[in-house]
Amino acid sequence: MSDRQQIQISIDRPWNWKDFFFQWEWMLVAILLLVIIGNSMISPWFLTWNTFIRTPATFLDKAFIVFPMMFVIILGKIDISVGSTVALSAVIMAVSYNLGLPMPLAMLLCLLVGTLGGAFNGFLLVRFKELSFVIVTLSSMIIYRGIAYIILGNQASGGLPQWYSFLGWGEIAGIPFILICFVLAATAFGILLHRTTFGRAVFGMGHNPRTCRHSGVNTDRVIWVVFTLNGLMAAVTALFLTSRMGSTRPNVAMGYELEVIAMVALGGVSTNGGIGRIGGPVLAVFIVGFLSYGMGLANLQAPIVLVVIGALLILSVLAHRIRFVGKKKRNTAA
Amino acid sequence: MHEPILELRNISKAFPGVQALDCVDFDLKPGEIHCLMGENGAGKSTFIKIITGVHAPDAGEIRLKGAPAVFRNPRETQHRGIAAIYQHVTAYPHLTVSENIFMGHEKVTRLTRRIDWSAMHTEAQALLDRLDPSIDARERMGNLSVARQQIVEIAKALSTNAQILIMDEPTAALTHHESDELYRITEDLRDAGVAVIFISHRLEDTWRLADRVTVFRDGRHIGTWPAPELTQNDLVVAMVGREISQMFPKRNVHLGEEVLRVENLSRTGFFRDISFSVHTGEILALTGLVGAGRTEVCESIYGVFPADSGRITVEGREVSITDPVEALEVGIGCLPEDRQHEGLILAWEIGRNITLPSLQTLFRYGWVDEEKERKLAGKLAAKLNVRAPSIFTRAEALSGGNQQKVVVAKILSRTLKVIILDEPTKGVDVGAKAAIYEMIGELAEKGYGIIFVSSEMPEVLGLSDRIVVMKQGRLTAQMDTAAATQEKILHAAMVAETGGAGETGQTSGALHGKA
């Protein structure tokens, strides 16, 4: 109709300083700086380049699961089986090496086991829609750990080749190999989440899976891929963890799933799904890592570290709430 | 009796960035039905929220029974005899009808302060008997139809001795028959002296019920008239602010090849042996009562819930569709009935919503090119005249009609042959309806085959080329619109035999019972 006036609709991304500075990530940066300052007050050596750059090697092993777990949580789900997946893939790697499999193949087998473990979760979720993710991953958490015990019993398996320790202890140009891998993984997952159609689908499904299905998003495949990635990265963690410890047991990585979920949540990823940015969990990894390290320096016991991390989590939840209220107001205005 | 029970003078209310209400006047007399009309975003909801105490007005005066009144919260207004019922029933489906009615003011025994079940059931039943004796107070709320749940909500309002009853789009989810029942109840209440504020988009509601009509537009009070003095045109002009020259577009019908053929489609428990076909440029109306299986047929064609048996042919080629992904690939798009939960991601920006269905085809290697995406979204949003400042405005901030335009823009981002529109005008106002009709007409002219699901007779007759009628999961009539009349369609939708054994003779009775 000609009498309808055409309305201009802007396609430029709006920018305002308030939105830019009211981001949880800035809060995390501030907390991280506080932790670093605190650590350097406890130990004068903390801020030397050598210590500072090597410290992350002590806590980065589990950080690899943080990225795929972020995807899982953005989907509005949770995967509590990853700790067990780490144990199972580590045990199978060590045992198969000791049975005569060459180490490179044993490492591939480790990755394969983790991937299959994750894919199995994905398969159950997609095939049996009535099952909740809590039940599915709780079951596999128990099963995977159980299989690890069946294979190895309550003992350790070690004697891995010398070169394998490079993964956890090695350095390239003075920078820990594990830190380099972490940065590469962060970049790759950041791109996958924020720059690809797959990442877009993950965000969309976190908000409203029904709309996504109606819009022709292959929702089943997204769930599959996300849970499979989670298993794969759990196996990557198994590689680094075993390398640092030199051997493995069926009870390694106990409680990793909760630590990882805590880091993701602290990183500003909403457990209601649909919201999160890669930078948050990356910062959260270093906050939690440096905090534990610093409390170790100060001879504080591990339980105190847990209390502090728990308090930080609650703080992050409260911060979400404040931001949420702010957004609500802006919406009414629009 | 002519003293107003409720008077609002110069009420203003602003939210950051919007003047929701601007010096609005309103008065309500006992024993009248006062229809409040206006497009989406006209300020009706804000106005109701001021009356019910959810929002406090920035300026203005409220007088209840002649005395100035300040409403601080909904509980207070409830105590003072104001009750509201909403389009979406806010009930507890797992509780009984009586529990729902007395929620918040349960009957208790005097001595032991326990819930007095028998008193509650008796009193609830007494209230219900006034409205609809066939509802049992001990029934679980969830087992009732939406229409009956609404009647329970009315009973709930009466249980608080409400003298002012606000009904916010109560007929939106009801069939014609159910609406009739609601009209009767509303009129009974009026005759009993209750003052009713009735909000609706359906003009029929107004003609049937209103004693007086007030129209809001853009937060302003446009006028209040006795209903008999108004013509439909007056009302539309008052609401839209311009004349809608033609509700249904005149099109150069150019029927082309058959583009979609559905043969003997069945899904157990929902529909059986459904066969029809659509040509390019054709608008096929799929009608029948709510619950006749129309939406289910659409969902099966679109692959949301695949059919158990039957054939779907697109341009002569048989296709198997088990998921919307496949439907979109063969060129079938669908605009879902529930646009808020199936059509949009409300928390997302308009732009992201629009490009969601086309991500896979637009960015073949999975890499999102944001500039390309913004341009496409901007182009489609402008084409459909989405009223928003930017494609970065969130979908939840839009009015119903504009949200619908975004959902249509989503479909158009894909290359399609057939478009299924499931109740596209549900819950949108007159102005937006006309825009949607026009858009459907344009789509048909461009050569899409259109399947258009609707329960509203005027739009079925006004817009379509051919009509398919369903009743209880069976196809009961198929006719050219030129030869169709409202009576023929209603007959097929309500009376025609569906051919199932044991159903004959009881079908119409069952329907009435259901309605």
* Oligomerization state: heterodimer
Count the helices of chain A. How many? Answer: 15
Return the domain count of chain B. 3
CATH fold category name of the largest domain in chain B: Rossmann fold
Strand order of the largest sheet of chain B: 6-7-8-3-9-10
- Estimated radius of gyration of chain A: 22 Å
CATH topology of chain A: ABC transporter involved in vitamin B12 uptake, BtuC
Largest contact between protein chains? A-B, 37 and 54 residues
Question: Could you outline the blueprint of secondary structure elements for this entry?
Answer:
The complex is a heterodimer of chains A (334) and B (515).
Chain A: H1 17-21, H2 24-42, H3 49-54, H4 63-74, H5 82-98, H6 103-127, H7 133-152, H8 166-169, E1 171-172, E2 175-176, H9 177-195, H10 197-207, H11 209-214, H12 219-245, H13 256-266, H14 279-297, H15 302-333
Chain B: E1 6-15, E2 18-28, E3 33-37, H1 44-51, E4 59-64, E5 67-68, H2 74-79, E6 82-86, H3 97-101, H4 117-131, H5 146-159, E7 164-168, H6 176-191, E8 195-199, H7 203-209, E9 212-217, E10 220-226, H8 232-240, E11 258-267, E12 271-279, E13 283-288, H9 294-302, E14 309-314, E15 317-319, H10 324-330, E16 332-335, H11 339-343, H12 350-355, H13 359-362, H14 370-383, H15 400-412, E17 418-422, H16 430-445, E18 449-453, H17 457-463, E19 466-471, E20 474-480, H18 486-495, H19 507-514
Parallel strand pairs in B: 3-8, 3-9, 6-7, 7-8, 13-18, 13-19, 16-17, 17-18
Antiparallel strand pairs in B: 1-2, 1-4, 4-5, 9-10, 11-12, 11-14, 14-15, 19-20
